[in-house]
Amino acid sequence: MTAIIEINELSKSYKAGKAVDGVTLTVRRGEIFGIAGPNGAGKTTLVECASGLRRPDGGTLRVLGLDPYDDRRALLQRIGAQLQEAALPDAIKVGEALRMYASFYDKPADWRAVMDEWGLADRRRARFGNLSGGWKQRLFIALALVGNPEVVFLDELTTGLDPAARRTTWGLIREMRGRGVTVVLVTHFMDEAETLCDRLAIVDRGRVVAEGSPRELIAEVGADSLENAYFALTEREMA
Amino acid sequence: MKGLANVVAVELKLIVRDPMSAFFALVFPAIMLWVKLRGGNKPLRGGTPLIDATVPMLTVFVIGLATLVVLPATLAHYRERRVLKRLRATPASRAMLFGAQWAAHMLLAVLGSALLIVIGLVAFGLTAPANVVGVLVAWLLGALSLGSIGLLLGALVPTGRAATVIGLAVFFPMVFLSGAMIPRETMSGSMRAIGDLLPMAPAVQAVRDGWAGGAPSPLTLGVMVAISIVAGGLALRTFRW
């Protein structure tokens, strides 16, 4: 499988200190790649660099062969992103949002088809502010896909969802992969990473502490689950 | 272009769905008109019937509300709620965002102005504008120049609440001193002198000139173009998603 994202010795600092400190990793075309780690590990910064929203301080970064920051205009046509806490105006209706987002892209998907495929047709006239958490996430997924992207970044998509809605969202993410879209998933739920991700990187204090399939990571530390492997790798205990 | 028209249409719907902005742009100016004309349609010093001064003035009052109060609040609210953050991850450019926001709020002001004109015609015997093209050009340039200032406010202010406070703090002294609320004929010389320095004054003057049948002065129109370019350019440069 070919590499779709190549990150080499990437670093990014803020006033408060180093957020990303020499990260190297590769995401392959067509996989669900997880980025897991404790709060403040640098996951979001990593994704923001890869989607062209932040300029890294050092290292190299290629997404679809492009430099995300310098070639942002070209890149944004080919990726979809649902970033942490990003939202829509409460009064916008589902159909309006999809149609408007489709209009931003040169070669969008048919927004009506996307709306149907993701089960949003019945809620076409519902306002964003009146949707439950699960339906909001479904709309976010549809919006991330309406531009017909090759890569989708999802940052903590399932945070705050009830267990049933999370499980449904997992199904949607698998469906994305089934359509050939590469998914980069930021999460701090290990059960989510274990069931969904083909491969993942565990990030701690701005560095990759392990990379591989869930099975490989579990075997690497001789743990019985990804969750226990995660705690062994990040050397943190549950409070 | 089709994409932009779609975004403008959605943004205009969002504004109208918010009862606060609908009140500000549609109901409030109509109340102002009623308050002004309550005492009868007396001629002003210089002979202009009160209604023929008040409606043109209040169309600029509406522009001020839509572009200096509602528009910055919309943009800042989008920033606060991270709507802009989501947009930033799409190919939508800041120029497109500004264009759509300006156009949607300008159309809101069109609705408010049209309402004033209809009330003026039906209830108070408003005289139709003598120089329609002059009025349209003046009104549009007024919307462009004040809209650019509104975009600049919206580019900088972090929260919707702060934007509303700042917008109102800019709006009220401006309409008061620029002759958009009180006819210039009834203002003292010093008030007029201060008002003439404010960016709303040329809009009021040009719309009233056109309504009375005069050609708007090139200087007045030029000032509005200059304000649009400077404030609009600054807004684009200082904008934070």
TrEMBL record, chain A:
Keyword match Repeat: no
Keywords: Antibiotic resistance, ATP-binding, Nucleotide-binding, Transport
GO molecular function: ATP binding
Membrane topology of this protein: Peripheral membrane protein
Main location: membrane
InterPro entries, alphabetized: AAA+_ATPase, ABC_transporter-like_ATP-bd, ABC_transporter-like_CS, ABC_transporter_ATP-binding
Cytoplasm recorded as keyword: no
Location relative to the cell: Cell membrane
Domain ABC transporter: 5-230
Protein name, per record: ABC transporter ATP-binding protein
Origin species: Nonomuraea harbinensis
Taxonomic lineage from the root: Bacteria, Bacillati, Actinomycetota, Actinomycetes, Streptosporangiales
UniProtKB/TrEMBL annotation, chain B:
Entry keyword annotation includes Cell membrane: yes
InterPro entries named among the record's database cross-references: ABC-2_transporter, ABC2_TM, ABC2_TM_bact-type, ABC_2_transport
Stretches that traverse the bilayer: 20-37, 57-78, 102-126, 132-155, 162-182, 219-239
Ranges of residues in domain ABC transmembrane type-2: 20-241
Main location: membrane
Keyword rRNA-binding (UniProt): no
Pfam families: ABC2_membrane
Protein name stated in the entry: Transport permease protein
Membrane topology of this protein: Multi-pass membrane protein
UniProt keyword annotations, A-Z: Antibiotic resistance, Cell membrane, Membrane, Transmembrane, Transmembrane helix, Transport
Family: Belongs to the ABC-2 integral membrane protein family.
Compartments reported by the entry: Cell membrane; Membrane
